[in-house]
Amino acid sequence: MRRLPYFCSGCPHNSSTKVPEGSQAQAGVGCHYMASWMDRGTGGLTQMGGEGTDWLGRGAFTRVPHVFQNMGEGTYFHSGYLAIRQAVAGGANITYKILFNDAVAMTGGQPVDGQTSVPQICTQVASEGARKVVVVTDEPQRYQGVALAAGVQVRHRRELDMVQRELREIAGVTVLVYDQTCAAEKRRRRKRKSYPDPARRVLINPEVCEGCGDCGTQSNCLSVAPLETSFGRKRQIDQSSCNKDFSCAEGFCPSFVSVLGGSLRKGTAAAPAQDPEALAAALPLPALPSLAQPFDLMIAGVGGTGVITLGALIAMAAHLEGKGISVLDFTALAQKGGSVVSHVRLADTPDRLHSVRLLPGTARTLIAADLVVGVLPDVLGVIGEGRTRVVVNTHLQTLAEFTRQPDLPYREDALLAKIEAAAGAAQVERIDANATAKALLGDAIGANMLMLGHAWQQGGVPVSLAALMRAIELNGVAVAANKRAFAAGRLTAADPQWRQTLMGDRGSVVTLNLPQSFEKLLDERVRFLTDYQDARYARRYLDTVRRVEAAERAVAPGARRPRLAEAVARSLFKLMAYKDEYEVARLHARPEFLQNLRSQFEGDFKLQFHLAPPIFEKRGADGKVLKRSFGAWMLPVFRTLAALRGLRGTPLDPFGWLAERREERALVVEYEGLVRRLLDGLTNERIGSAVAVAALPEKIRGYGHVKARGIAEYRRNLPVLLAAHDAPPPAMQPPALKTA
Q1: N or C: which end of the chain has fewer CB within 10 A?
Q2: What are the distances in angstroms from CA 486 to CA 441, 451, 471?
Q3: What Cα–Cα distance (Å) separates residue 40 from each residue in 35, 275, 522, 601?
Q4: Do 398 and 241 form a contact (C-beta atoms < 8 A)?
């Protein structure tokens, strides 16, 4: 498991670097180079201003007729324009994708060194001989009344795939200018009130979510995070990191709900007795370690979350006290969510510090703000067993691979075990700093500061409280929030019960307990299916599962858990509880969802649902059904539809005649027959292969064309697994005899 740097949440490159099926793209200098490790048919690298020159040399010697070449507008202004001129002069078949994001984002969001604009670029490349120029943007309305070169089209980013397919068929040089502001720069400007901040947030109803991952496929966004529930992995939006790109809502799924107006509910400074700063003021100050010998401290975390800031604050506090301090930051692609490690060394005087890098086994304190970074070899290497005190954040931020692997395993326990093995279990303290920061501040960005406070209260940061508070003030960023988070960290170290009280007061986004037993799993699904349809429908489900359980226990009486029965319980439930119009309406209208929504948002807000109802079906140019937005007036419609769910599957069901609904009902009957086949001749030796067959429908997820792909994959794989199950077990071979 690695912490790969990745595009920021809402980054334009999440969309702009996609290429049509069958096409290839060449990377260039800039953030967009990271598309090289995103399974996007992108590779290669050349110097700034050399984009496409390599294709001119090798294009004649390959069967690939055309390539796309990525180029940022900063590179274009610097020297990339010359690369386009050489491609035109050489007659190359190439499409330059000029990614206009209004900033030099790779190195911190500096402005482009010179004046350029989309109209200027269009005019220049057209005058140089580009055969066709197209502007693609998330806001095509901004181009109304804007003078562009003759023949230049403006298209919505939803049409990107179609536009690229058109351009790759044109011989010669074509240019696609993708215009969307850098997400990180949007965030900075919004904080300074210099960029529009749409009064809109999106969230996911986890019960409607199928966990198919299409929202991640469409958005490639790290703010679409996993949510583990007793019904499997779902999705949730990390509101703390969301940059309001909204491309996730393009996923073909009705679980997305927009909140218009209002604001995120912040952690409330409730009664004075619960104010963390007031409570922390009454705590005894820790005994800080002597600095007669250098004190080694390491901070490990994710880029962009304030890891380097923690080291800088400790350094400033030490400086204010006249102590010796050195900080060595390993940042790599830190601003893009990569691994960041800070080596911090303190002593009573500067002349006691020599090496700035921590030596193996010398760390006295490790603040592991991220589990994945915390188990890097260079981090584990500085831990000394019984010597290093570790404070570890148990919250695992979304991994880059999750955008492409919906079932990516998150092995938090295994990661924690590595840290505990290195330091000793008694030396490690766990805290979900993100959840605590959200409960207190309404934003997880305070998590690292909270961990600093926790480590300081334990005596793991040898600078005074007054010096640290002054360093926070001198930093001048979110001073009140940082002091509050630091105080909360002190409290979590001194009084763990305080955190439990805080979390109990705030609650969590979704409270769903993972099943602790087979009986609990079964009971939960029986109750759900009763609400879904009726008691008779639930009894049909229960009878089938109990029949499997009895057969399995007969052939494997000593098994601790009925594996086959559990697989059937999960898969049959998934097929029987298919999410048709009645069920989506019921789940959206549930009081629990609306209460959960109000726990996250406050103020005067309205709801907007993103649906593709069959009676209003509209298809895009690619033939796929388009989603439409509906206001809060849908809530009474949902309640009415939910009340009519008794019509489901009857001749009076207006939706039951749809091909998708007929197939869903047929799958249930087919699966019941499949279960009977698995039980026929079941033996203890065949339980493993039977489980593989029985669990296959769990991969059928999503809605519409997404679900259709899952069903097609199920039907392709089923015969293979059945053949393996039905095959006679291999005959026992006598052991090979050793010869002299």
Answers
A1: C
A2: 12, 7, 12
A3: 6, 49, 41, 36
A4: no
DSSP H or E segment with residue 604: strand 601-611
Tokens describing residue 154:
């403006």
Residue-range domain boundaries for the chain:
13-186, 198-264+581-646, 283-506, 518-580+658-726
Phi–psi pair at 31, nearest 5 degrees = -55, -35
Residue 573 in tokens: 């439930």
Q: What is the pLDDT of residues 82-115, one digit of tens each?
A: 999 999 999 999 999 999 988 776 666 666 777 7
DSSP 670-698: HHHHHHHHHHTT--GGGHHHHHHHHTGGG
Rg (CA), the chain: 29
Which residues, given as ranges, of the chain have pLDDT below 70? 105-111, 267-274, 334-335, 503-516, 730-740
Q: What is the pLDDT of residue 733?
A: 53
Tokens for 166?
Answer: 């058109």
Instruction: Give every CB contact of residue 418 below 8 A, 6+ residues apart in sequence.
Output: 375, 380
Residues 6+ apart with CB under 8 A from 241: 9, 222, 223, 444
User: Which residues, in sequence order, are CB contacts of 38 under 8 Å at separation 6+?
Assistant: 6, 17, 220, 400, 403, 404
Closest by CA to 169, choosing from 27, 13, 39, 20, is 20
Q: Are 228 and 237 in contact (CB under 8 A)?
A: no
pLDDT digits (tens, 9 = 90+) for 472-485: 999 998 899 999 99
Is 408 within 8 Å of 235 (Cβ atoms)?
no
The pLDDT score that the predictor gives to residue 453 is 97
Nearest to 539, CA basis, from 586, 576, 590, 505: 576
Distance CA(77)–CA(235), nearest Å, equals 40
Show the tokens assigned to 60: 């004649």
Report domain 283-506's class: alpha beta
Q: What is the 3-state secondary structure (H, E, C) of 400-460?
A: HHHHCCCCCCCCHHHHHHHHHHHHCHHHEEEECHHHHHHHHHCCHHHHHHHHHHHHHHCCC
Q: Burial, 251: exposed, middle or buried (Cβ in 10 Å; 0-12, 13-18, 19+)?
A: buried
| Element at 70 (helix H, strand E) | strand 67-72
CATH number of the structural domain 13-186: 3.40.50.970
Return the C-alpha torsion angle 355, 359, 362, 368, nearest 10: 100
Q: Residue 521's CB: how many other CB atoms inside 10 A?
A: 20
Answer whether 436's CB lies under 8 Å from 488's CB: yes
End-to-end CA distance of the chain: 46
d(CA 427, CA 462): 18
C-alpha 197/C-alpha 218 separation (Å) is 22
Calpha distance 7→335 (Å, rounded): 9
Burial status of residue 504 (CB atoms within 10 A of its CB: 0-12, 13-18, 19 or more): exposed
Query: Which residues have a Cβ under 8 Å from the Cβ of 271 and sit 6 or more positions away?
Result: none
* Contact present, 138 and 161 (Cβ < 8 Å): no
Give the model's pLDDT for residue 708. Answer: 95
What is the rounded CA–CA span in Å between residue 362 and residue 364? 6
**510 vs 524: CA distance, rounded Å:** 16
Sheet with 324-330, strands from edge to edge, namely: 324-330, 339-347, 295-302, 365-368, 389-393, 428-431
